[in-house]
Amino acid sequence: MSIVTLTMNPAIDIATTAPSVRPTDKTRCTAPRFDPGGGGINVARTIAALDETVTAVFPAGGPPGELLMELVRGAGVPMRPVRVADNTRECFAVTASDTGEQYRFVLPGPRLTAPEVHRCLAEIERAAQDCRYVVASGSLPPGVPADFYQRLADLLTDLQVPLVLDTSGAALRAVRRGIHLVKPSVRELTEYIGRPLPDRESRVAAARELITREVSEIVVVSLGSSGTLAVTAKDDEWFPATEVAVRSGTGAGDAQVGGITVGLSRGYPLDDAVRLGIAAATAALMTPGTGPGLPARMAELFHRPAPPPTSPDHLAIPK
């Protein structure tokens, strides 16, 4: 049995470096790196790097869609693409050598028609017949209704397949039931709840609201450099982030979702699954582009002794 990922708004991620980035000046860049991107595809690459069986489902259109499929194939990830008419998007990241800062340009994606959206759901239904988890990650492109992930959750509930969801904005606010694990950032959770969440107590309370309302059984809140907060109906635990030299931040959150899902699929307790997710995210930060972390590095980070627990409440809310 495998894990299936769904990426409704995939992308070709183009990464390069430049000596500096200045307004109006021509920015002369190094040779670009091309990666298959979009939330679920990034998740799938991490799952594959952790030596678990995974299948990636995503819409693909036009010449960019052909390149995306070639890149997914080259990454060693089995796929079930859904052909669409409009062109798959391309996203661009430039790292300035003089400051180390990364500038990321994200395009909206193709406009999907109602029949194309239906074909994506039908492909997931076929792929999910014999899988342990479905992971839906990323934004929704134009033309896809905001309640798409709720429709997906209802479908998977009927199939008795747990859904891991990582999305934001209107797509997250439209979710009302049937998620096994949802992973919002603290900003996304704040927007969903509609009130400030300045400290751990308020964040746990907000996460537990989602659990009480049966939106999700587990809520894992990403706090950026302040760590990760995992909440269930009975327990909550804070996990500190691991400080490393960052080469690229693109896809690290997706890597965390991939690591958590692998841990759950292996039967790990939630705390160990979250620690595997943090190890995967940290390893991804140390790689260029949107590439997954090296397996050996993920293993080393996962088995590294945890630091003594401290309270994250004094830390500012990440932007």
Essential attributes:
alpha/beta; nine-stranded mixed sheet; four-stranded mixed sheet; 13 strands
Q: What's the gist of this structure?
A:
With 319 residues, this protein is an alpha/beta fold. Helices cover 36% and strands 23% of the residues.
Cα separation of the termini: 38 Å
In sequence order, what are the helices and strands, one letter per element? EEEHEHEEEHEHEHEHHEEEHHH
Given the helix and strand composition, which structural class is it?
Answer: alpha/beta
Shape: globular
Low-confidence stretches: 312-319
Strand content: 15-25%
* Count of distinct strands: 13
Helix content bin? 25-40%
Q: Count the helices. How many? A: 10
Lateral strand order in the biggest sheet: 5-4-1-8-9-10-11-12-13
Name the assembly state.
Answer: single chain
Biggest sheet descriptor: 9 strands, mixed
Measured on Cα atoms, how large is the radius of gyration?
Answer: 19 Å
Q: Mean pLDDT, nearest integer?
A: 92
Write structural notes for this entry.
- The longest helix has 16 residues, at 270-285.
- The protein has helices at 39-49, 62-74, 114-127, 148-159, 169-173, 186-193, 200-212, 252-265, 270-285, 295-303, and strands at 2-6, 11-18, 33-37, 54-61, 79-84, 89-96, 102-105, 131-137, 163-166, 179-182, 216-222, 228-231, 236-239.
- It starts with a strand and ends in a 16-residue tail after the last helix.
- Strand 8 (131-137), helix 4 (148-159) and strand 9 form a beta-alpha-beta unit.
- It contains 10 helices and 13 strands.
- The protein is α/β, with parallel strands linked by helices.
- It is globular.
- The strands form 2 sheets. It has a 9-stranded mixed beta sheet, with helices on both faces. The protein has a 4-stranded mixed beta sheet with strand order 3-2-6-7.
- Mean pLDDT is 92; it is low at 312-319.
